[in-house]
Design a protein that fits this description.
The complex is a heterodimer. Chain A folds into 2 domains: 35 residues, no CATH class; 77 residues, Roll (Archaeosine Trna-guanine Transglycosylase, Chain: A, domain 4), CATH 2.30.130. Chain A is an alpha+beta fold. By secondary structure, chain B is an alpha/beta fold. Chain B has one domain: Rossmann fold (3-Layer(aba) Sandwich). The longest helix of chain B has 20 residues. The radius of gyration of chain B is 19 Å and the shape is globular. Chain B starts with a helix and ends with a strand. The chains are: A alpha+beta, B alpha/beta. Chains A and B meet through α1, β3, α2 and α4 of A and α4, α7 and β7 of B. The structure holds S-adenosylmethionine (SAM). S-adenosylmethionine binds next to α6 and β6 of chain B. S-adenosylmethionine (SAM) binds next to α6 and β6 of chain B.
Chain lengths: 119, 287
């Protein structure tokens, strides 16, 4: 089930709900959900019905720095429109993007953990 | 090390103080803990070696970084939650707790041990993580490591009223076990030790009253001071707890500075900062 926490919306299970009912709104709990797109945690933890693209080293580097992906960095793609899970050549999931003509727009990427630590 | 700590450690260690003094000059090694929720130990080692890491196995799912070209906080493997940069001694409290059921991590931020507890629980059961601050760090660390059974509250642990199967109290402390890493511990005084010792007593009282009968409490600090360690365990023994072996060696001190503590306190584990960060771990069960 979904609940609102201080850090946003989350998915929790029955056992967690019992604790939360007792203590009130937590800072965070369970799996983080984003408003319109799946969160990075969901991409990592759930089997989502979203096609993948595989990017080269350059694409990987740009993407985890929060930038978009150029067509020339894409090695393989299961689709060329809509939302995609972006992976590197090793198959690591780097985040989620969306095709916009020739580029894949960065919607969320794992570089957030590095950027957050620094900010 | 200031004169105050030098005198104390000479008294506690006797002739072994020389070993500590010698090791104090060496650089402090770094370690990583493999997150087995995400990757296997061998696979991670192989991947990091491809990035010119030289790793040496320290214990199960834990490597010492002998050398590396890229900072361990900046690799794809780190961002993907495949490992946590953490001293091997920090792995002992969660391992000692053997977490299951309803678990409480009382002083959780920034979440190194929270994510390890969650990993050991294989994301089953519920892990309540409280702290007075650093919520973002706690949240991001548990999210990056793909922990899904954690509930995070910004609370003073003393305000929590519930019963748990297992509790980890990784208490706020002087941090004198970090002496090789941080210079500030050189200024530690008796006043600070006593101040933190009082806080630790209150926190352990809360932990005891929040445990189910037969429940386990692991108490840990990165301090080397008996007032923050063995003497806090004595306080727990006086308040309805019994002690169990941690499984990492019986190295607790039972006669610090002329005090006579319960002989069982020997069963606690005290690791001096020779090989890593100094650490103290005790395993207690509610009678
Ligand atoms: C040694 S650190 C914990 C490190 C953490 N367990 C980890 O492994 O990443 C001690 C923590 O205790 C927290 N703390 C101090 N007093 C507290 C209280 N009364 N209730 C909850 N947390 C408290 C501090 O904010 C600090 O984050």
């Amino acid at each position: 089930m979904k609940i609102k926490c201080e850090a946003g919306e989350f998915e929790i299970n029955e056992d967690m709900k019992k604790i939360i009912d007792k203590f009130g709104t937590p800072f965070a709990a369970g799996i983080f959900l984003k408003q319109k797109n799946p969160s990075i945690q969901e991409i990592m933890m759930k089997k989502l019905d979203i096609p993948k693209i595989i990017v080269n080293k350059m694409g990987e580097k740009n993407f985890i720095y929060g930038k978009d992906i150029l067509n020339e960095s894409i090695i393989k793609k299961e689709t060329d429109s809509g939302k995609v899970i972006v992976c590197n050549e090793k198959g690591d999931k780097l985040g989620i993007g969306e095709f916009e003509e020739d580029i894949v727009k960065n919607l969320a990427d794992i570089g957030i953990y590095l950027r957050k630590e620094k900010s | 090390m200031n004169e105050f700590l030098t005198e104390r450690y000479k008294e506690l260690l006797g002739k072994d103080f020389r070993i500590l003094e010698r090791d104090m000059e060496k650089p402090c090694p770094r370690y990583i803990r493999v997150n087995t929720l995400r990757i296997g130990e061998r696979e991670l080692k192989k991947r990091l070696e491809e990035k010119e890491y030289v790793l040496r196995k320290k214990m199960n799912n834990c490597f010492r970084i002998i050398s590396s070209r890229i900072s361990p906080g900046a690799t794809i493997e780190h961002l993907s939650g495949y490992y946590m940069v953490q001293d091997w001694t920090s792995l002992l409290p969660p391992l000692c707790l053997e977490p299951e059921g309803l678990v409480w991590d009382m002083c959780a931020s920034p979440g190194g041990k929270t994510s390890h507890l969650s990993e050991l629980m294989r994301n089953k059961g519920v892990l309540l993580a409280t702290d007075k601050g650093r919520m973002r760090a706690l949240f991001y660390n548990t999210m990056r490591m793909c922990c899904s059974n954690v509930i995070i509250y910004k609370r003073d642990a003393k305000s929590i009223d519930f019963e748990f199967d297992k509790i980890l109290l990784d208490a706020p402390c002087t941090g004198t076990g970090m002496i090789r890493k941080t210079k500030h511990v050189s200024d530690i005084s008796q006043g600070e030790i006593d101040y933190l010792s009082n806080i630790q007593k209150k926190l352990i009282e809360k932990a005891i009253s929040s445990l189910k009968e037969g429940g386990t409490l692991v108490y840990s600090t990165c301090s080397m001071e008996p007032e923050e360690n063995e003497m806090i365990v004595q306080h727990a023994l006086n308040n309805g707890m019994k002690i169990e072996e941690t499984g990492f060696g019986n190295t607790g001190i039972v006669d610090p500075f002329g005090y006579e503590l319960d002989k069982d306190i020997k069963k606690t584990t005290r690791i001096w900062p020779n090989e890593s960060t100094g650490f103290f771990v005790a395993k207690l069960v509610k009678k």
